Amino acid sequence: MGTKFIEVDASRKGEPGVEEGVKTIEVGGQTITAPIYVQRIDFDDLDPEVTEGLTTVKFAVTVTEEIEELTGEVDEDGSPRTELKEVQVPKWLEVDLGKESLEQYEKVMAPFFAAARETEAPVVPAPRKRRKK
Question: Which superkingdom does the taxonomy of this entry point to (predicted)?
């Protein structure tokens, strides 16, 4: 999510999106800390100028990852031998989009949505790790 913070007056304390923080400055070799208030502003990940009407879009893409897999063989020292294997796994992502970016996403993805089948989110087993002796 695109997020930025702007410093606001203390009178805005308690307003939605306004958080208390600490500002640290160095003056003449001394460090001074002072309370400040900042407003959190979420924005369109493609167009940071858009801050209203955001929609979070979640999707998965298939990526290649390497895992260590036991070969069934044993090294000279008696430890199990492993090899690296490439596997295809889903990577779940999300992006926050304003109205125009969302329309652009839907237009580009329309042929893929039309051809897609509805499915359950896959359960991916954790990659195997080398056992310690």
Answer: Bacteria
Per residue of the chain (133 residues), give pLDDT as tens.
578 888 999 899 888 889 998 999 898 889 999 889 999 888 999 998 998 999 999 988 999 999 888 888 888 888 888 889 999 988 889 999 999 999 999 999 999 999 999 988 767 666 666 555 5
- Cross-strand pairs, 42: 3
Q: 95: which 2 tokens? A: 């992006």
According to DSSP, residue 52 is labeled: S
Residues 6+ apart with CB under 8 A from 102: 55, 57
